[in-house]
Design goal:
The chain is mainly alpha-helical. The chain has seven helices and no strands. The longest helix is centred in the C-terminal third of the chain and has 23 residues. It is elongated and about 55 Å long.
Length: about 150
């Protein structure tokens, strides 16, 4: 079952709220980028108002994310269940902020303008995580074997 427009608007709004929170941006600041009030940003985040394509473009440019970020997690087709809910977004924030280093990593990542460089950073973190997992499987405890 495909998501309805209201589901899509709520999903995009939740992604905006998630990213705004991670970047420590006020609704006022985001509103200035779009020339709208902070109340309008709240309406976008709740999904009661729809963000236009040009507004999504401005937001992605200013927040330094690919425009597709706002659609990540939206599923279409017979195997989809639902879009990202407020609860899922909140759990993502709580989960990602459970390590003190995560906010530093998020902030540094947000400053990388080059998509290619961001992908390299992701690959690096994935490689480190895989090394950690390999060490655990081999019985080295909580870290990889010494080099």
């Amino acid at each position: 079952m495909e998501p309805e427009m209201d589901d899509i608007n709520r999903h995009i709004g939740a992604r905006l709220r998630l990213l705004r929170g991670k970047l420590h941006l006020s609704r006022e600041k985001v509103g200035k980028w779009l020339d709208v009030s902070h109340q309008q940003i709240r309406n976008y985040e709740k999904g009661t108002n729809r963000l236009t394509a040009d507004a999504l473009f401005v937001l992605s440019r200013e927040m330094k994310v690919d425009p597709g970020f706002f659609f990540e997690g939206l599923f279409f087709g017979p195997h989809s269940e639902s879009s990202l809910t407020d609860q899922a977004a909140a759990s993502y924030i709580a989960e990602s902020s459970s390590f003190p280093e995560s906010s530093r990593l998020d902030e540094a990542f947000a400053r990388i303008r080059s998509r290619q460089q961001r992908l390299l950073a992701v690959r690096l973190v994935e490689a480190v995580a895989e090394t950690e997992a390999d060490g655990m499987r081999r019985g080295y405890g909580s870290s990889a074997p010494p080099v």
